[in-house]
Specification:
This protein is mainly α. It has helices at residues 14-18, 22-48, 53-57, 65-91, 93-112, 117-120, 123-153, 159-167, 169-188, 190-219, 224-229, 239-242, 247-277, 283-311, 313-335, 341-354, 362-369, 375-385, 388-391, 393-404, 408-426, 433-436, 440-447. Helix 2 (22-48) packs parallel to helix 8 (159-167). The chain is globular.
Length: 480
């Protein structure tokens, strides 16, 4: 679709705001299902591989081996956001997504066929770490392109709802893996699962990726917003985000996302092992408990995405940060006491709802912060760079426990995480409901306007308007 055939920003007819062409509907469906598949690959090493890690790593395996596999993937994601974000902004969202999907499928296949320690020694766990690092690169490439694409296609008033629906696929994937792992351990027994059961889950992940590749190839195309702005795509590198004109927006988003990732560390990564060591549950009971919690998280994550379109993205995120700071430490202290699987599942569900359900509006919020020409890079780097320090929690959790106690460490991380979310969101743009009901580039423009004492109604199409009489050339007239 040539850029000349497209209407300018903010002048789309009203029908295009409520209805979508088949390509747009396909992009939204692909964003939802694709994020589910991405997160299957993210959670496979955390849950499905955990019971078999000793067979891969051998007798020299330590308590750090499992976290190291997770960290390897997380460290690959910032690099993937940089590489694929640039490809997406320059060559197209769909092209970048297809390449990233192929890479993710190959990495899953590689892990599924890796021999155990008894056949190739230490090379087994080394190969897993390498595959996870590469997988992190490709997974970041997928969400850096596919999620901004879905947000660009979303009708303005449904961006919040679509954001929550898309990001709720992460806990649905987490729950799927948790229930599948618990089910296979029960049906097959631990010995059979360690030999080959976990490999089946990685092969299923590969097949799901190939299915998404076929769908993107046949049905999904880039949005009108991308075609309209592609000729102006920025050639600047990382410095434009870290120290250049986009730096204020980037660092506010970075602060917000660092807090959310710290919450994820405690409630999704640290909690499963504490359910075994502190609460007394078995591995399968812990997996079941996390599965129940992920279902609750998914439902509320979709809700918070929709609520952000009613209350405002910033107001919802700040409010949820206050809720997390108050409720999550209390719930943590209650859940880590010895108890049965039923109460533990309910408490874990409540903990994840009051904390990480705040991810709901994030896809819309981050996409609305950056203009189309740098949207994938802005979204991907803010989402991925912010997870580096939280991903290193296995290295500082022990010293922190020595300083403030076994339960004091996760409590401190939860409070710090809520503070970062509140500060990052509180410094973000304050836009009215009318501001969001605009072309996504107009929202990005309105969000960069100087802070005002009250919410304002921006004129849709402000980014494309020409100067009006009495207004300095090149500036946009704003109305109350």
């Amino acid at each position: 679709m040539p850029a000349s055939a497209l209407p300018p920003a903010g002048t789309l007819p009203s029908a295009s705001r409520s209805t979508l062409p088949p390509a747009g509907q396909s992009a939204l469906r692909a964003g939802v299902v694709g994020n589910f598949v991405d997160n299957l690959h993210m959670f496979l090493p955390l849950t499905a591989l955990a019971p078999a890690i000793a067979a891969l790593a051998g007798p020299g395996a330590s308590v750090m081996t499992g976290p190291a596999v997770v960290i390897a993937m997380m460290l690959g994601r910032p690099l993937g956001a940089l590489v694929f974000g640039r490809i997406s902004d320059r060559l197209g969202r769909t092209r970048a997504t297809r390449v990233a999907i192929i890479g993710t499928a190959c990495c899953a296949l590689l892990i599924a066929v890796i021999p155990t320690y008894h056949r190739i020694g230490a090379l087994a766990v080394s190969a897993v770490l390498l595959a996870r690092f590469l997988g992190g690169i490709f997974i970041a490439g997928e969400y850096s392109a596919a999620i901004p694409l879905a947000m660009e296609w979303s009708p303005p008033r449904r961006r919040g709802w679509m954001s929550g629906f898309i990001l709720s696929m992460a806990p649905w994937a987490q729950g799927t893996i948790a229930f599948a792992t618990a089910g296979l351990l029960t049906l097959m027994g631990t010995d059979a699962y360690v030999r080959y059961g976990w490999r089946l889950l990685f092969l299923i992940g590969m097949v799901c990726s190939l299915g998404m590749l076929t769908y993107y190839t046949l049905h999904v195309s880039d949005s009108p917003a991308f075609h309209r702005r592609s000729c102006r795509a920025s050639r600047t590198g990382l410095s434009a985000l870290l120290t250049g004109r986009h730096a204020p927006i980037f660092w506010r988003a970075f602060t917000l996302m660092t807090g959310l990732w710290l919450m994820t560390d405690v409630t999704v990564l640290i909690l499963p092992s504490r359910l075994v060591t502190d609460t007394g549950l078995t591995q399968s009971q812990s997996a079941f408990t996390m599965g129940v919690a992920s279902v609750a998280q998914a439902l509320f994550m979709a809700l918070t995405g929709h609520l952000s379109s009613l209350t405002g993205r910033r107001r919802l995120l700040v409010g949820w940060a206050v809720l997390a700071a108050i409720a999550s430490p209390v719930l943590w202290l209650v859940i880590v006491r010895p108890q049965q699987v039923g109460p533990a599942a309910c408490l874990a569900a409540a903990l994840q709802v009051v904390s990480v359900a705040a991810y709901g509006p994030i896809a819309a919020y981050l996409s609305e912060l950056f203009p189309t020409e740098v949207r994938s890079r802005g979204y991907g780097t803010a989402y991925s760079f912010s997870l580096v320090l939280p991903a290193l929690y296995p290295f500082y959790l022990g010293p922190l426990e020595s300083a403030v106690g076994h339960q004091g460490a996760p409590l401190l991380l939860l409070i710090l995480a809520a503070l970062l979310v509140g500060v990052g969101a509180g410094l973000g743009p304050r836009l009215s409901r009318e501001d969001w009901d605009c072309d996504i580039d107009d929202v990005a423009t309105a969000g960069r306007a100087p802070s005002r004492p009250h919410d304002e109604t921006e004129v849709c199409g402000a980014a494309a308007n020409t100067a009006k009489p009495g207004t300095p050339t090149g500036r946009t007239e704003m109305t109350r």
